[in-house]
Amino acid sequence: MTDSSIEEATRVEAAKTLLGVRRYDPNIVPFVGALLTTDTSDSLRQQLVQALGAIPDTSGGGQLVDHFSELSTTLQLNAFAQIVKRSVWTSLLLDALESRQISLNQLGSANIHRLKTHSDRDLAKRTLILIADIRGPEEKEMEHLIATFSQVVEEPGNLENGRTLFATNCGTCHKFNGEGGDLAPDLTGMGAHGSRDLLTHILDPNRVVEPNFVSTSVETKDGEILDGIVVGENTSTVMMRNVTGTFEIQKQDIQNRRSSGLSLMPAGFEALGSDGLRDMIQYLCADDSQYRIIDLQTAFTANSQEGIYANRQSKKESLRFKQFGIVRVDGIPFEIMHPEKSQTGKNVIVLKGGRGYSKRHPRKVVAKTNIRAERIHVLGGVGGWAWPFGGDKYKGRDVVRFTLLFEDGLTEETVFRNGIEFADYNGRANVPGSREAAEIVRYGQVRWFSVNVKHDSIIKSVTLESFDNEVAPTFVALTAQTR
Fold first, then answer.
1. Which one, out of 4, 226, 314, 458, has a CA that is 20 to 30 A from the CA of 348?
2. Rounded Cα–Cα distance for residues 43 and 60 (Å)
């Protein structure tokens, strides 16, 4: 099975055959588990993860847990999905977290949420206690640090000094407004999150790490240790990138490979002091000071990398985004959340309606906010079975009630309609109440429109409620334009 000249399918079948007779030799399962970290293709290792996951006893899960830290980010996601299928295996994972064999950062926000909400209540409870034990003192210290600077970074700053500080401290890795490096996420448009949010991510870079930017450490057989992000991989080589550039490593030369679960971005930017942090953050926020991204993480109901309408298994029945992160539509910044970055593993709102799987989505969701706005920009405007599906018979039907709740208790309500603001996701049908957001999805469309806010008060929440009819209305992002 370690002979790369043998066809992959043959090697996988050999592994499955061995696992089938594992009761005759206790070394079989560890042998197959060890193949997860050898010079094999990702495709082969994914199939080995599936094969180990099919073993009903603890040995398969034990191997997935034992080798978890050595797997690539993609393989860790696959291994986690197998581990949480069985309570006994999940308990082994929590043991590894407790002993620090696996770090919380390697799991990611979405998987931590799955552990917190595990159907086995004892495991969910144990997870909460364990996370509090691991992160409690550190989080308390970090929140105190963020609170120390949170007020001053809201004040006007010296933008020229902020630009200099950004170029010196961040520009090597991050691109902003077309300038800088491409090792880390592009920060253009991130100012729409606001000063406090940027401060949090600057001071605590490992709070949320995008999957494509997780640091990996490789130790070669001659003792060299290389750190960076994996930007490409095939059966014989791994392509990595760090601040020194892009480099290639032959897999046959790799001794150990470990995903850290951490960002390449260093901690310690509090050393810039209050004035330095204020100036740099205000520089990042300057172009988008009139916009604020509305956080929809608690309102998301579906994962766009799965089917979201009739069938969850049909990935074609979804919004296949070209990119994640901040996108601009007619100059307005929207954030398309990556499901692996979301705390729930979901990244779009699909409300109850239509038929099949979409009938299982909730009818109403609420997003908390704390913004004074003159209008709300909506990225979505599409749905399963929306117009022109079904013809003009359903055109003009109410599909979503959009309600703003203000700090003083007043509300404003707007109703979105089929064939007016909303059109079918599967195609490019035009409707008068919204416009196509070009270059967002690989197929079909996403649309955008705006809702004017009449009341001049702080908005405390946004409620989206479907009419549970023939349309399954879908939302991607909301951005407030401030007063």
1. 458
2. 19
Residue 441 forms beta bridges with which residues? 321
Residues 189 and 64 in one domain: no
Query: How far is CA 31 from each of CA 2, 14, 59, 184, rounded to the nearest angstrom?
Result: 11, 12, 11, 37
Residue 225's beta-bridge partner residues? 219
Coil vs helix vs strand at 354: coil
Whether residue 471 sits in one domain with residue 340: yes
What CATH number does residue 191 fall under?
A: 1.10.760.10
CATH code for the domain of 363: 2.60.120
Sequence letter at residue 45? R
Per-residue confidence of the chain (483 residues) as pLDDT tens digits? 556 567 777 878 888 888 888 888 888 888 888 888 776 777 888 889 999 999 888 899 999 999 998 887 778 888 998 999 899 999 999 999 999 898 887 887 778 888 988 888 899 999 989 988 887 777 788 888 999 999 999 999 999 999 999 999 999 889 999 989 888 889 999 999 999 999 999 998 887 777 678 888 888 888 888 888 888 888 788 899 888 889 999 988 888 787 777 787 888 899 999 999 999 999 999 989 899 999 999 999 999 999 999 999 998 999 999 999 999 999 999 999 998 888 888 999 999 999 999 999 999 999 999 999 999 999 999 999 999 999 999 999 999 999 999 999 999 999 999 999 999 999 999 999 999 999 999 999 999 999 999 999 999 999 999 999 999 999 999 999 998
Whether residue 383 is contained in a domain is answered as yes
Does residue 328 share a domain with residue 222?
A: no
Strand order in the sheet with 364-371: 364-371, 459-466, 398-406, 411-417
Nearest-angstrom CA–CA distance, 219 and 27: 26
* Structure-token pair, residue 160: 């020229």
Residues 186 and 104 in one domain: no
Distance CA 431, CA 425 (A): 12
Q: The CATH number of the domain where 227 resides is what?
A: 2.30.30.100
Q: Per DSSP, what are the bridge partners of residue 449?
A: 378
